[in-house]
Write a structure and sequence with these properties.
Elements (H helix, E strand, L loop, with lengths): L3 E5 L7 H9 L3 E5 L2 H6 L2 E4 L5 H10 L3 H10 L4 E4 L1 H4 L2 E4 L5 E2 L4 E7 L11 E7 L15 E7 L1 E4 L6 E5 L5 E7 L2 E4 L7 H13 L3
Parallel strand pairs: 1-2, 1-3, 3-4, 4-13, 5-7
Antiparallel strand pairs: 5-6, 7-10, 8-9, 11-12, 12-13
């Protein structure tokens, strides 16, 4: 039986590529802000590119926070936040003047501070994802594989037990997190070719 993925539509970034990638990996997917459709899904994906404050405001204005909280926290459906979607899971983000996030992962989202002269912000392109421990999301994916990034902000202050991977840039930053059924990726699996699709297949195999 194919898994049905609700891709949350809240006006932040191109969600069509996420839908195509999930369908290529064997899932059914709908881009939606309808609470009924979200509630009928087996998996929930929150993608996004852009500003933290605007992203949270959009989730609130479309009244999506209650249904997301119900389905992800109470029903414990497998959840994947991608790029801005991962950042919005944090307690707070400083972008756009500061805003509380969903609060599902401890930590704060801050702008990169260059550690050496000439380092480019935003961080754009392929970079290593280092896995200090195994995790089902990365089954079949060796530590050190390259994934595709586009971002100027990153998660800080995350507890060690919630960190899945690191990436070397501006020192080192957290590039994926996990807490129970909740997972977040700072990179874009839908743009990361073979390894990104392997990760999405791993996510689709997860059960609530």
């Amino acid at each position: 039986m194919k898994k049905f993925v609700a891709i949350i539509n809240y006006g932040m970034g191109n969600v069509d590529s996420v839908k195509r990638a999930i369908e290529e990996c064997g899932g059914n997917a709908a881009i939606t802000d309808d609470p009924g459709i979200i509630s009928s899904a087996t998996h929930v994906v929150l993608p996004g590119v852009g500003n933290f404050k605007e992203g949270m405001n959009n989730l609130k204005s479309r009244n999506l926070v209650p249904v997301l909280t119900d389905q992800v926290i109470r029903e414990r459906k497998p959840f994947l936040g991608i790029c801005l979607g991962m950042q919005l899971c944090a307690k707070r983000g400083r972008e756009g003047g500061g805003e509380d996030g969903l609060g599902w992962i401890d930590g704060e989202v801050r702008r990169f501070v260059p550690d050496i002269p000439g380092i480019r912000i935003p961080h754009i392109g392929w970079n290593n994802v280092i896995l200090p421990k195994s995790h089902p999301l990365f089954d079949g994916i060796p530590s050190g594989k390259d994934f595709y990034f586009v971002h100027s902000y990153h998660l800080t202050g995350c507890p060690d037990e919630n960190i899945i991977s690191y990436t070397p840039y501006c020192g080192c930053f957290v590039s994926s997190v996990g807490r129970g059924n909740i997972h977040g990726l700072q990179f874009h699996p839908e743009k990361s070719q073979k390894v990104g699709f392997q990760l999405l297949r791993n996510f689709l195999r997860m059960e609530g």
